[in-house]
Amino acid sequence: MSNDIQQQAAEFRKAFDSLLNETQKVIVGNTEVVEGVLTALFAGGHVLLEGVPGLGKTMLVRTLGEVLDLPFNRVQFTPDLMPADIVGTNVVQEDPQTGRRSLIFEPGPIFTNLALADEINRATPKTQSAMLECMQEKQVTVAGKQYKLSAPFFVLATQNPLEMEGTYPLPEAQLDRFLFKLMVPFPKRDELGLILERTTKREMPQVSKVMGRDEILRWMGFVREILVAPHVQDYAVRAVLATHPESEFATDMVKRYVRFGSSPRGAQGLILAGKIRALRADRYNVAFADISANVLPALRHRLIMNFEAEAEGVTADDVLTDMVAKVAREVPDFAAR
To answer: Which residues share a beta bridge with 157?
Structure first.
């Protein structure tokens, strides 16, 4: 391992920890959630945050927008929101000198580096679908013309649980475009007390900008240089294949409760997130444990459960936890790698 790679890895860990520490000046607890958001950031992916109202999902995204020196826009998703309200539209403009009228493109709020899609599941499926091209192709198409979004481009979306009133389930195609789906839990007793300490006094915690556009792009490129051994990559492949009921690697729970398994994007998420976890652990190659540690956030939203699972209260997390345990048994000395 060259000294240059070691030095860059050390700088990356320092940069990651600086972002984490600065964000947690405002966000109490939920360390795993914050780490997941930052992991997706450096992996170049989007994040879906799910939890009941009032848990700080929007505050987390807003704080990240303050910590990162990037243009930041917020879109409040509502049932009457239209696709043009997100991506933009052509408007008529009149030349003050000649009086001639022409159509010009007026960019929507999605033209930014960090986009907060707040309560994304409160908009109709038609409006939600406007995000598909943005999230995958990093561009929008209006009236047959493509407009590129500037890099880096991240969508951080929040949603309330689907069983709550006034929400629309996200289409499977859109869910698949999120690198991670992170569950935001209710704070513990001591965390709730600290939240009150920080939010009920005259002065609110303030954060400083830690990282800008060029540095983010630099680390996004560096992450992809980390090596993945063929047998570790095959472990990620088998983990994804094991989510498909018809696969030879499928577990009994998958065969019983899953209709459709993860797409190849799930495997990409496992590898990229595994690389970042390895770097944070001061390693320069991905281990089996790096893959398994990211199975839940990378795959939970990519599994489509069947009616039997719904009737028995079996979740995607239950199936994936069982699947990881079964796949890990096939790997010698799993815990040590």
So the answer is: 48, 117
